[in-house]
Amino acid sequence: MQQPWKITRRLLVASMLLSSLIGCGGDDNDPAPLTAGAVSSPDRFGAETAQQILQSGGNAVDAGVAVGFALAVTLPAAGNIGGGGFMTIYMDGKPYFVDYREKAPGAATPTMYLDASGNVIPRLSLDGSLAAGVPGTVAGLHAAHQRFGRLSWRQVLAPAISYARNGFVAYSTATPTSASSRANFNNYFGGKMVSGQLFKQPELADTLQRISDTGPDDFYKGQTADLLVAQMARTNGLISKADLANYQAVWREPVSIDWNGYMVYTAPPPSSGGFGIGQLLKMKRFLAPQFAAAPLNSAQYLHLTAEMEKRLFADRAQYLGDADFYQVPMDQLLSDDYLQRRAAEVSLSAPTPLANVRPGLGTDLPVPATADEKPQTTHFSIVDRWGNAVSNTYTLNGGYGSGIVVEGAGFLLNNEMDDFAAKPGVPNQFGVVGADANSIQPNKRPLSSMSPTIATKEGKVALVLGTPGGSRIFTSVYQVLVNTLDYNLPIAQAQALPRFHHQLLPDNVIEYEASKFPAAVAADLTLRGWIMRDGVNGGLNIEAVQVVGDTPVPVTDPRSPNGVALVVPPIP
Ligand code: DON
User: Fold this and answer.
1) pTM value > 0.70
2) What is the structure's pLDDT at 570?
3) Using a 6 Å cutoff on CB, does residue 537 contact ligand 1?
4) Could you say which of 89, 321, 375, 562 would form a disulfide bridge with 96 (CB–CB 3.0 to 4.6 Å)?
5) 87 — phi, psi (to 5°)?
6) Is the link from the previous residue into 506 a cis peptide, with omega within 30 of 0?
7) What is the DSSP letter of 76?
């Protein structure tokens, strides 16, 4: 749903008189804005929250933090305080990145999901307390707010507390994606969160109120921490009081890619997103003549892109992990020299056989295998009246995470531990493999694909976007970026175009939105040796804001059933 907002002169004057703003991201002498900003959110509660905060004088970070907490209430399958994520910020002309990814508990070990024979125990890294990493969301949202917020912490928590305390009309029914034993989940959600009915969460309201009163200390050192650790004791989890007390969100340099007059800012390790987007953009540049001869989304276009993706996923499996624990050779992996060589390896007609695709810096690939399951993550994009932006992706990993609700605190715990390589070469739920770089170690962050991205032109925000989808995230973000920045398509069109994905394993499989591509495209690729498979699991709900001139154009993905895009008027 898109809702362009018409504004009268009178409203503009009213907004000038009423706004007396100080602090980050704004100036009292700014001319009256045409809008208070714009938001693209996975649900209407997130959009309404952003509207409320932006209209109260909040900037994009205030709104982003408030939406992060609100979706923890209204979108419990993915929104969270028991998970983690990444926020890319563009504030006063500079890019920033907050890493609030979960960490492995201090008692985690490299073999914790293996049986006595060294085989991975199915679902142990997905279901139950052992699957949970130390949550980062509260620390991350707090770090962003501390540094850039203009409104009070209480103000940004208020909408979430209200949804939890007073309830909201649910638009989906809580059903965990796995049928395994989830008694704890069912006690809390079972039969209560039903589409179309008012759903109240008094325990979660109390938790959010404590966080509002005492900041992250309650969550990491106080009553909520005690409740979480008690839950671990009841259900054989590993997260300790020390793990919680030691958790820190980290400010990192975003990956920045100079792209045809744009700067693209996106996620560094422990995400593979910025690496993936950077490799794809640069290989595409070195294949410019080949792409010029391949119309957008033609068979040859898909072929060339999938060939590039083969190489990037070989590198991802070998070299990507938490850079605080493993020396990720990001500079080399994103260097022009290296990517020129990798682009030159791309076959122009048929898929390169797996045996010939090696990680580019040397050594072997993990053994191929496949796996898949229905996951959940969520993204929102916000711009404010001063031209600042927030691009935020956060997750419990699987839908409703581990299925474990912290009793007495009313929130779900993630199952992010599955994003580690439980064993070299054995795929996780997204079918991707890893090696030492992404092995389990105490306090390490599992490798992510989340890619909250902001593109700027001449220092001004041009595009804010991101999506759920596990390993499909950055190939989807890449496609929408290219459709917009290279092919100059308006964001709504860029986003609606059909998507596709390849990730080296399974061998030669291209996932694609079959109903949206001409049959001839799949037929051509099949003849070349690609295996065409319908669907791009996840990776589809791009929530984006393009800024055209000074006008924000928020769009929600046509594939996103509950997404809401809103241009926010300055004063109600
Ligand atoms: O961090 C990651 O890459 C995954 N845990 C994200 C999971 C996800 O996107 C699931 N959504 N469809």
Assistant:
1) yes
2) 87
3) no
4) 89
5) -125, 120
6) yes
7) T
